[in-house]
From TrEMBL, chains A, B, C:
Pathway: Bacterial outer membrane biogenesis; LPS lipid A biosynthesis. Keywords: Acyltransferase, Lipid A biosynthesis, Lipid biosynthesis, Lipid metabolism, Repeat, Transferase. Catalyzes the N-acylation of UDP-3-O-acylglucosamine using 3-hydroxyacyl-ACP as the acyl donor. Is involved in the biosynthesis of lipid A, a phosphorylated glycolipid that anchors the lipopolysaccharide to the outer membrane of the cell. GO terms for cellular component: membrane. One of its GO terms (molecular function) is UDP-3-O-[(3R)-3-hydroxyacyl]-glucosamine N-acyltransferase activity. SUPFAM superfamilies: Trimeric LpxA-like enzymes. Belongs to the transferase hexapeptide repeat family. LpxD subfamily. The keyword Phosphoprotein does not apply. This is UDP-3-O-acylglucosamine N-acyltransferase. It comes from Thalassovita mediterranea. It catalyses: a UDP-3-O-[(3R)-3-hydroxyacyl]-alpha-D-glucosamine + a (3R)-hydroxyacyl-[ACP] = a UDP-2-N,3-O-bis[(3R)-3-hydroxyacyl]-alpha-D-glucosamine + holo-[ACP] + H(+).
């Protein structure tokens, strides 16, 4: 894999300077760059490492003096972070899965594989499954009965897709991701304590021992186009209709999406986020790592939650939330500033009580 | 799969009305129902969608006027949510795993398979394992040495059961669930900082760099009857004796149950819950999603924790808990109401100080 | 597997008393011990169970009167918890994986296997992978292209190692652990709301709908010696350079380590911990279960976080932290003591206002 500086710049829509015929075989941090690496120094602070490395060419910030930095060539992109998307796609060495259907894979005779589909060793494709053109089903993956994947999908090792799941084009799933587990839905013969607590907001009343009956998931999962799923992340089936994931949704490792959840387009769900059953998440939402969202609520478009926010109630569109329970970020910052100063406040109030009420102040 | 309205009502112990000979092939939300679907409209609000769909029959709330809703037949169950358990079991199309032992499965000659056991493609069953009658070991599952599963178990694709694990009847596990990983137990040659902090409640004193030695898990895991486990959920082995899961326990996706933990009967453990080592959980407990429970503590029977509750100390039976650190739900609601009003309280106290002490109020 | 009391004591560097020729085949809790079990009663409280069991020999606390406890032999170790490491290693019955390369494993011709390597049934080892002497690759594992594992590694069933991952000696991974998923790194064509919020600390301004472009991970993962990983835990690849895990790091089940993260030596990462991208964790750190650490921050050496601590900013070396957002443990205890007493404080201040300002106190 080798590109000239000129080729790279052209493909990124970036400007190239100097000897643009230099051949590039990889990218590296400045201090660790070899002679054929493109050093990444998109901020002045990163350029300090250039003398330690051997890069002849670098990707730099707008206005950088590449010659003064001792380089023979440079690329300058208007939004360097966005340029990384194109650059990293060009330079990705990939997983090296061999093309074609591996002889050890178990593909049901009734499954329909499109053109140029790769099926890795020891993968299983069940009856009635449909795989779109150019998709890659990695080693040891499982594709369930009547599941449908679109074109250009890429499933890493050990991804599991359950029966009747429908997935659009260009789906990417990291190792161990699972789509289509049964939803977690159980019911007791009589009203349970949890139902009582929800009605009374706190009082369980008489505790009664009951066993649970399971509610089977009759729905499956529908996933749009350009969706990604992280390692060991999970999406559960819906109870009656499908759980629905919109287009362009990105889900990180170990995230959990419960039954009946609906996620809007271009929403980002970071690692270890949990979304409980029947909750709706809008478009262009960002849920920070370890965010938790209660069941049966609604998160509006463009909402952002900070890391570990626990959302227990509806959030209107556009809010930036933080904390447990979730508050508007400004309120959270204020409230926790106060929390840290509480011991002092108690002392102040005790002193006031003593002064005013002639009381002991010792509560 | 087709049932008459009469058959369905009979099997649910529900009442049927109208043309009970209508043939039903599935269930659906009212607006999406086809002519042979049973529409689910167990609350009046859900019935609004009926005209948009084509359902001839519906499951309705007690007292509903099915004829006025334009239906030809109706089913009314005394507790509709509970009826869903039976109805969903009847209508579940399942995963379609082919019966019998797939030729690609690797079953050790010394493993004992009961009658009518299914072993999916590329599953591995190790030496000495015992699988009860009618159990289904899904594709790519692993059953370890001397592990025992009861009758009527159902393991989805890629479930992993370690050596010497004992599991009762009707166990259900979603994709990627693992039982019998080693417990997380490490020890330093000399007292560690964590041990010091636990003793002193906050002071680590002199920090010393030490490496960890592992404590192997000599116990395994014992699981009762009618237990369920979610996708990619984990139960670890005990150190000396088995980690123990009671009867009827339901564990959701990505939950973690540490070494030596004991979980009582009919306890519900929601998604991403973590229970640290050697903690005991009572019967009929409900741990809401993302709840965390410290090691070596005790949670009494019938305790309920709200989503993301972090339990750092014992909880007596019957309590409803919320927050981090966990408080009784009423106290939590009170405390956080106060937290949001803290900035105002600081201003009030500053004003009071000024008025009373003639002080500046600026702390 | 059978050892004399004398042998066990010698191997643990412990003292033996009484009939040290007694043959021991296992260890057990005192009440459950059989005649050939070594009972574990390292604290006086545990010795109460001895009469209920049948143990002839026990591991006891320093100074215990073994004869008065009715035993024929005893072992006394200076630090009993540390002795458990050696004792449990001796007594571990293991997983029973058969030695050698199973005929169903798919090992690429270009992979290099050291001496005495075990490869379990249905494991896949890709082109260019290198496995060190004595390592065990469990059933259904996946080792990616050009990945390197050192000597004496032990991978349980279904562990997945991606392309170009480098792992040292004696690595242990529990079922379903994954190393080398792609990092979660996405970028919008124009500045996103998250970027705006980070700049303004709270104001997203005009919300604009944008789709994400993925940044591929060009780095891989480098793991030191003596590292352990729990079931279904995940370590992601770095963006440009490798994500780096030091020597002696222990990672529990379902933990998540993001792209570019660096973890120092002998650090303990408990279950369900999440470390976001590009964060650096020092040496000898302990992150309690469900701890969350924001991206791009730094945690100093010897830091300890209590369960579910959410670290949103740098933490200097040696700190003991708790809470969300993380505070020093003493401050947290103080602040939350205050939080619980807030309702009373509001009443006190209202009374003061009434007394002082003749105001209504109703805010």
């Amino acid at each position: 894999m080798s590109f000239t500086v000129k080729d790279i710049a052209a493909s990124l829509g970036a400007e190239a300077f100097g000897d643009v015929s230099i051949s590039i075989t990889g990218v590296a941090e400045p201090a660790m760059a070899g002679a054929s690496d493109l050093a990444l120094a998109m901020k002045p602070a990163f350029a300090k490492g250039l003398p330690e490395g051997q890069a002849q060419a670098a990707m730099l910030w707008a206005g950088a003096d590449w010659q003064a930095l001792g380089l023979k060539a440079a690329i300058v992109a208007p939004r360097p972070r966005f340029a990384m998307a194109g650059l990293s796609a060009m330079m990705d060495a990939g997983q090296g899965y061999a093309a074609g259907v591996h002889p050890s894979a178990i593909v049901d005779a009734s499954a329909k594989l499109g053109a140029d589909v790769t099926v890795g060793p020891l993968a299983v494709i069940a009856a009635g499954a449909v795989i779109g053109d150019g998709s890659v089903i990695g080693p040891q993956c499982f594709i369930g009965m009547d599941a449908t994947l679109g074109q250009g999908c890429f499933l890493r090792e050990g991804v599991k897709i359950g029966a009747r799941v429908t997935i659009g084009d260009r789906f990417i799933a990291q190792p161990g991701a699972t789509v289509g587990g049964d939803g977690f839905s159980f019911v007791t013969p009589e009203e349970s304590n949890v139902e009582k607590v929800r009605d009374s907001l706190g009082e369980a009343g008489e505790a009664k021992a009951q066993s649970y009956a399971r509610i089977h998931s009759l729905g499956s999962v529908s996933v749009g186009n350009d969706v990604e799923m992280g390692a060991n992340a999970c999406i559960d089936c819906g109870t009656v209709r499908d759980t629905r994931i919109g287009n362009g949704v990105k889900i990180d490792n170990l995230a959990q999406i419960g039954h009946n959840v609906e996620v809007g387009n271009d929403t980002l769900i970071c690692a270890q986020v949990g979304i409980a059953g029947s909750t709706r998440i809008g478009h262009n939402v960002v849920l920070g790592g370890q965010t938790g969202v209660s069941d049966n609520i609604f998160i509006g478009d463009h909402v952002i939650t900070g890391g570990a926010t626990k959302v227990l109630a509806n959030v209107p569109a556009g809010r930036v939330m933080l904390g447990y329970p979730a508050m508007k970020m400004e309120s959270h910052v204020e409230a926790y500033k106060g929390l840290r100063r509480l011991p002092r406040l108690f002392r102040d109030v005790a002193a006031l009580k003593k002064a005013v009420l002639n009381a002991d102040g010792n509560d």
